[in-house]
UniProtKB/TrEMBL annotation:
GO terms for molecular function: metal ion binding; metalloendopeptidase activity. One of its GO terms (cellular component) is membrane. This is Peptidase M48. Keywords: Hydrolase, Metal-binding, Metalloprotease, Protease, Zinc. Binds 1 zinc ion per subunit. Coiled coil: none annotated. It comes from Oceanidesulfovibrio marinus. GO terms for biological process: proteolysis involved in protein catabolic process. Residues 4-150 form the Peptidase M48 domain. It comes from the Bacteria. Its cofactor is Zn(2+). Belongs to the peptidase M48 family.
Length: 187
């Protein structure tokens, strides 16, 4: 989702997922009205943190020496990591609300879990990567999967178990025929 609330769907989202409910899971997360507000708040917080970081760096230059270098590095680290904390909290809320939207729209709640697992598989995320968690804008993928799985088990309402994916598969075939090898669309 963009700052103006626009959502852009790329063909890769449809071509790389196995069901309509998986795509709906991604969209339910992104379209959470709370996440739209979070984008605007994130921009505001980032501007404030940038100014504070700049002031801290200037103070560090004024102080000089090792203490000044520490102030500069601390200012940079704070401005780099603080927005990620808010983003992780926002993403967790968007997962929770997204699951509710998914079910309300008649999709299996498992669609959100399946979509996050698919993202993990496609991008090789999860255990074994060397990227520190504090650099992520979202909670670690394993944490998200555990949280969404926990939400699934806590849900009291019945959700549809299976959906007819005929139209989804038709759209995938049309996209493959148009943008990839047309023969792959026949598979």
């Amino acid at each position: 989702a963009a700052t103006a609330g626009n959502v852009f769907i790329q063909k890769g989202l449809i071509l790389n997922f196995d069901s309509e409910s998986e795509v709906a899971g991604v969209l339910a997360h992104v379209l959470d009205p709370g996440s739209q507000r979070h984008i605007a708040h994130h921009v505001e917080r980032t501007q404030t943190l940038y100014i504070l970081s700049l002031l801290g760096a200037l103070a560090g230059m004024f102080v000089g020496g090792e203490a000044g270098e520490g102030m500069i590095m601390g200012s940079q680290a704070a401005s780099a990591s603080e927005p990620r904390t808010y983003s992780r909290e926002d993403a967790t809320e968007a997962d929770r609300m997204g699951m509710n939207y998914l079910v309300s729209a008649g999709y299996p709640a498992k669609g959100l879990l399946d979509s996050v697992k698919k993202i993990q598989k496609l991008y090789g995320l999860g255990g074994g990567n060397n990227i520190p968690t504090y650099l992520y804008t979202h909670p670690g993928i394993d944490v998200r999967i555990g949280y969404i799985d926990h939400l699934l088990h806590r849900m009291n309402r019945q959700t549809p178990e299976k959906q007819d994916n005929t139209e989804f598969l038709r759209v995938q075939a049309l996209l493959r025929a148009e943008y990839t090898d047309p023969q792959s669309a026949l598979q």
